[in-house]
Design brief:
The protein is α/β, with parallel strands linked by helices. It has helices at about 1-15, 20-45, 50-60, 75-90, 95-105, 130, 135-160, 165-170, 170-185, 190-200; strands at about 70-75, 105-110, 115, 120-125. Strands 1-2-4-3 form a four-stranded mixed β-sheet. It is globular.
């Protein structure tokens, strides 16, 4: 027994590892893992559970402040999807939410997506394939079209009687609106694949006839 105890003592000294050192290493590893978990949670996209909480709060509060100034035309599911997207923007991207509120007051369910710009009140016709792709994508679409409306309003107030089509709907206008949409997707923590797909767009879809738009 004595020889065994001396042998253990010899091993401890020869390795140079103390109980305090082992404890320090374990605590350091725990801190690293905790920081990684916090970072992961802060940068993740919204889960279905997150969006369900927003959706549920809307169902129990019909007079939601995010939607009170909008005209939303469509079936019940469509209206609920748009309201959820607006609420998401109101809480997590207020600048773009206020832009939509100022420039895009009417949102209607339609077979194809596109906006009828107007000085008085612009109307966004939103197809189900875009509205229901995801709540974050729906929110990004609202920001995108509000940017088109802002371009039109700014141009009309400056030039009025000149042709504004290229300024509002041309390729450069699309690239600008895509850029603003991407910023919004980042703010509301949209899934990575949605942001990556948007980054790959060059605005060339601007020339697609309204009847041929499958988005």
């Amino acid at each position: 027994m004595r020889i065994q105890a001396n042998h253990r003592k010899h091993l401890t000294r020869s390795t140079g590892v103390s109980d305090n050192s082992i404890l320090f290493v374990l605590l350091f590893a725990l801190c690293v893992l905790t920081n990684r978990e916090i970072s992961s949670r802060s940068s993740r996209s919204y889960s279905e559970k997150d969006l369900a909480l927003i959706d549920g709060s809307l169902k129990t509060n019909a007079a939601d402040p995010a939607c009170s100034d909008f005209v939303i035309v469509g079936d019940g599911a469509f209206q609920q999807q748009v309201r959820t997207a607006l609420t998401l923007l109101m809480y997590h991207d207020q600048d773009d939410f206020l832009k939509i509120k100022k420039y895009l007051r009417e949102i209607c369910q339609a077979n194809h997506s596109g906006t009828q710009v107007s000085v008085a009140r612009s109307t966004f016709y939103l197809a189900p394939q875009s509205a229901f792709y995801s709540v974050t994508w729906c929110a990004g679409d609202l920001v995108h079209e509000a940017c088109h409306c802002k371009l039109y309003r700014d141009y009309w107030e400056s030039w009025r009687f000149r042709d504004s089509n290229l300024i509002v709907n041309g390729k450069e206008a699309e690239k600008y609106c895509i850029k603003q949409q991407l910023k919004a997707l980042e703010k509301i923590r949209a899934p990575v694949w949605e942001r990556n797909w948007l980054r790959a767009q060059d605005g060339s879809h601007h020339s697609t006839p309204y009847a041929d738009r499958n988005w």
